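Can you give me the bound-state structure? Components:
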Amino acid sequence: MSGTPEREGTLADGWELVVGLEVHVELSTATKLFCGCANRFGDEPNTNVCPVCLGLPGSLPVVNAAAVDFAMRLGRALGCEVRPAVFARKNYFYPDMPKDYQISQYDQPTNTDGCLELPDGHVVGIERAHIEEDTGKTTHVGTGGRIHDADYALVDYNRAGVPLVEIVSRPDIRTAEQARTYVRELRAILLAIGVSDARMEEGSMRVDANVSVRPVGSNELRTRCEIKNLSSLRSLGRAIAFEADRHVDLWSGGERPRQETRHWDEAQGRTTPGRSKEDAEDYRYFQDPDLVPLAPSADQVAAIDAALPVLPAARRAGLLAAGVGAVSAEESALLVERDQDALVRAAVEVGADPGLTATRVCNDLAVDDWSKVTPDGLAALIGLETSGQITATQAKQVLAEMVEAGDDPAAIAERRGFQAMAGDDLAATVDQVIAGNPEEWQRFCSGDDAARKKLSGFFIGQVMRATRGQADGGAVNRLLRGRAELF
Amino acid sequence: MSGRISRDEAAHVARLARLRFSDDELDELAAQLSAVLDHAADVEALDVSGIEPTSHPQPLTDVTRADEVRPSLERDEVLAQAPSVAEGQFRVPPILGEAP
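Here's the bound-state model for the whole set.
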């Protein structure tokens, strides 16, 4: 993940950021939470609706067993305690829910007290992960499409009743970068256990951030604002950084933030005030009389635990143990995210260089279908590269062909006429290039590291041109440094 | 009448439920709601240690269904119930404010 251009994660001196995240995740069940309508994104509006999800009188909800199973699976993956739970009605008047209430879990949620460990070891507590139904989709129609100048609104209830889990973290996040890492890690877990496709851009994973600040060294929780409408990791980071600065400015000026919901405006790069949170307790929650409690048995929970796959954190640890620890945390996270860690480990086991294997797979195997690349084939390719038989550029091309045809790398390299130049030929070419560029060579020998780095790029380019790309860049660099007696 | 609920509180609850009452009606409702809370207070005074909370009158848990798609309603039939329709959707008045 590349950083955003904005300054992030550092606050004005003396202030600390305090963030908790609420992440809504749509579960990838076949049907909705309380009825048999299809749970499918992108269908024609109002085609997946029935008396239950339209809230018609006399209809009765029945819980989808798979949704409960998925929710408990997620709870256990987050180290939560899975408890007996009851469904409650959250009452409000807004046309996105035709019943005028949303069925959720309130004081007795399915999952409580878990945690999520970030790749750098920072632990974020999970307060709860409860089951609820999604709302319908409202589109405001009118000049400009903004809520306040809409002429009318259109409502599509295909999403109403889709099963969600809301994962509520404790306010343990201290930087905007940590917030993004938390969401990435949560997403990796969701994908690993197969309960959601967790696509922020399609809205199947939605993040709200509760942001406040406090003086460094204090343990108090000051007034927080809840930021909504965060549809990408980039928005999440920028919004938190903006909001934190706003709070510091307010407190520093002798004012205090108002507890409210705020919206992130991506184009303007700022948050704007929304609903005041003063009425937050007015949803008149009560237990839904149409639904009986969930009471998962110890056996049920044990079965879920037994069926959990190896989670991303453990898989990263597995890479480390296999000697792939030389690669960056980013690389190992990416390998696990793409499900390529087992391939890398297997290639390393049969002798491939760990660092180069990880880098080659991270950079040059970013494809959807890499099923034709076997551990042995990958190891053979890395072997050709480390032994100097082919160059890095050639290795990338061979790998691309392995993805398509799944052939043996040595055969591909031979067919394409790939071979790195033999050492003696290469040395002769390097000497010719040095002789042809005496001024640059003088500066290379006498310059500082930065100048030398720049000039080695120049020399490698010249050698590449002279050899029509057959030279190995690393080998040229070694020859240059050798001739300048820089060892 | 214990006065556990004031007229203002009754009016607040009515507003949340989008119900409109006259002052006389609010006084009457406040008295009735207070009586309900009096009863709850009586029950609360009992020693119930060691008794599991009853969340449902029927002794049932985990009533679930299999995750199998069943036919939805025909859209034309669904939208025929709506006072106003546009583009295959329910058309509602402009909404001031945001979803909760």
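A couple of observations. The beta strands of chain B are 64-65, 85-86, 89-92. The radius of gyration of chain B is 22 Å.
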